[in-house]
Amino acid sequence: MAKGNLIAVVDDDESVRESVTALLKSIGYDAVAFARAEDFLSSDHRRDADCLIADVQMPGMTGFDLYARIAASGEATPTILITAYPSRGAQTRALRDGVKAYLAKPFMEEELLGCIRQALDSHSE
Predict the structure, then answer these.
(1) 3-state DSSP helix/strand/coil percent for the chain, to nearest 5?
(2) How does strand 6-10 pair with strand 51-55?
(3) Backbone angles phi, psi at 107, to 5 degrees
(4) Which of 100, 81, 75 is nearest to 37 (CA)?
(5) Who contacts 81 (Cβ-Cβ below 8 Å, separation ≥6)?
(6) Where do the domains of the chain lie, and which CATH numbers do they carry?
(7) Partner of 113 at 20 to 30 A CA spacing, among 2, 25, 31, 36?
(8) CA atoms lying within 13 Å on the CB side of residue 8
(9) Residues 2-41: pLDDT tens digits?
């Protein structure tokens, strides 16, 4: 089911980055992790990612900034934003702008996996 799908995880929190990446790999996704949005943008994986999971608040470029940069380039990478500081306004903005999901940390594994499946399904349509 998950074979062939590359998921990029961008989060400055090492424990979140590693645990999400390990979860994804454990169920068969290919996963790559980055501590900074800028690192993801300059990587070879930028155009290969089938889904992006990005933290909202990071030093330098935020998850919102990262999504805006990708969308402005014409790429359609389905994006899930995650945050330890959720707000209704930020969620509304994210979904209005085209982000596929906005999750508050800590989230349940199944909640994240469901969002990934929906994001991947929307990307294949």
Answers:
(1) 45, 20, 40
(2) parallel
(3) -115, 160
(4) 81
(5) 54, 55, 56, 63, 64, 67, 94, 99, 101, 102, 103
(6) 6-86+99-107 (3.40.50.2300)
(7) 36
(8) 27
(9) 557 999 999 999 999 999 999 999 999 999 999 999 999 9
DSSP state of 101: E
Contacts of 92-98 with CB under 8 Å at 24 or more apart are 93/64, 94/64, 94/67, 97/64, 97/67, 97/68, 97/71, 98/67, 98/71
Q: What is the pTM of this model?
A: 0.94
Instruction: Note the residue count of the chain.
Output: 125
Q: Which amino acid is at 87?
A: S
How far is it, in rounded angstroms, from Cα 124 to Cα 20? 23
CA contacts within 13 A on the Cβ side of 39 = 13
